[in-house]
Design a protein that fits this description.
The chain has 391 residues and is α+β, with helices and mostly antiparallel strands. The chain is built from twelve helices and eight strands. The chain has a six-stranded antiparallel β-sheet, with helices on both faces. The protein is elongated.
């Protein structure tokens, strides 16, 4: 988690970009449970403390500041209790967390200032109640908001600082001892909050790593069949014509293993995957779905564009691959399929592309030298539907 930002990064580690959205969603799920309870408790505590305030205090101190905090809390509680038909998106979660800073911190500062001023104006026998109210209220608030590291620490500082300053600067010896105890409790809670944040990030990072491994071909680092299915589901969910598919099968891969060894065969597969990914474009999903079989899932496109993309993929494989200091050439055949003509789901597209591919698959003797074959005209596995290309 630590970057190269020195001591500041070690003190305040950045959230890895890979888990930032998941962390925001986790925070909002937690806040939806505790924030309405927190606001209800805050309203009850502030109203009770307001009624017990010094009657000689100015109306703005006795009523204005606490009622302002109550009004803001009531509006925010109603907002958090409002039912939502759609699940919260990652972008909305980030906005909610950001809004928490802008609302919770001013409320804490308002309550803390009110408690400090009320302590200053109250009679000596009643002074101890205000720091107690504020300390308990702020620590409870911080505990409820603990899933949001920055906002929690800001609330602690804004709520506790005014009261602590009043006790240390104008209080007696017992007031100063009480302030020191509150500071120790605040520091302990802050440490727990930072530890909880680190644990959340570590948990999400581990989950992200496991999910990525489950969606990745371990040899080439490309997407696997499961990831290809998920990408296709996302394309079909967008509506419209649906995605297109290029199914690539290598020609003469077995002789590479036989002549150069399996290590060279694995290195060749890795190099082929890298070359396909480099030429497929960011909008494509490149997957290894079999031993020497690859699939490129593309956004919706017409037949001519799909044929051009397939030709470019085959051309990308034409140059020899330098494996262990030896140039190795490999041939490939491509089967093409488009939604909705060739199917309305990935399995249907795979069947259509597979049928087209094997209709044009070259019949080679296993002992034939590995070479790039010439690109023939497209062969139809099913008339007017799917096509195949070969290099």
């Amino acid at each position: 988690m630590e970057g190269d930002g020195g001591w500041l990064t070690r003190l305040w580690p950045r959230v890895p970009a890979a888990v930032a959205d998941d962390l925001a969603l986790l925070r909002v799920a937690r806040l939806k449970v505790v924030v309405p309870i927190l606001y209800a408790t805050l309203i009850a505590v502030v109203l009770t403390a307001m009624l017990a305030a010094n009657r000689e205090a100015h109306w703005a101190i006795r009523y204005g500041m606490p009622l302002a905090a109550v009004a803001i809390s009531a509006m925010r509680m109603a907002h958090w209790l409002r039912p939502s038909a759609a699940p919260v998106s990652a972008q909305a979660a980030h906005r909610l967390v950001g809004r928490l800073y802008a609302i919770a911190v001013p409320i804490a500062a308002l309550c803390g200032t009110w408690a400090a001023v009320s302590w200053w104006l109250s009679e000596p026998g009643q002074r101890s109640y205000y720091p107690m109210f504020m300390a308990l209220g702020t620590l409870t608030t911080a505990f409820c908001l603990a899933s949001v590291r920055g906002a929690t620490l800001a609330v602690l500082a804004a709520g506790i600082a005014p009261v602590i300053a009043a006790l240390l600067l104008a209080g007696n010896r017992m007031d100063q001892i009480a302030a020191a105890i509150v500071l120790l409790a605040t520091a302990f809670l802050a440490r727990l909050i930072l530890d909880q944040h680190d644990q959340q990030v570590e948990m999400l990072t581990l989950r992200h790593r496991l999910q990525r491994q489950a969606m990745t071909d371990p040899l080439t680092g490309l997407a696997n069949r499961r990831a290809l299915h998920r990408a296709a589901e996302e394309h079909f969910a967008l509506g419209g014509a649906g995605p297109a598919l290029i199914l690539l099968d290598l020609d003469g891969f077995k002789p590479v293993n036989d002549r150069h060894g399996h290590a060279a065969g694995d290195a060749l597969l890795i190099a082929i995957g890298g070359r396909l990914r480099a030429h497929a474009g960011e909008s494509a999903t490149v997957a290894r779905i079999g031993g020497d079989e690859f699939a490129i899932l593309l956004p919706a496109c017409d037949a001519e564009s799909l044929a051009m993309r397939a030709s470019a993929m085959l051309a990308a494989l034409a140059a020899p691959f330098p494996i262990d200091g030896r140039p190795i050439r490999i041939g490939a055949t491509a089967g093409l399929a488009r939604a909705p003509d060739d199917g309305g789901a990935l399995l249907e597209l795979l069947r259509s592309a597979d049928a087209a591919l094997y209709a044009a698959k070259p019949r080679r003797d296993a002992s034939e030298a590995v070479a790039v074959s010439a690109l023939p005209s497209a062969a139809a596995a099913r008339p007017r539907r799917s096509r195949a290309m070969r290099r």
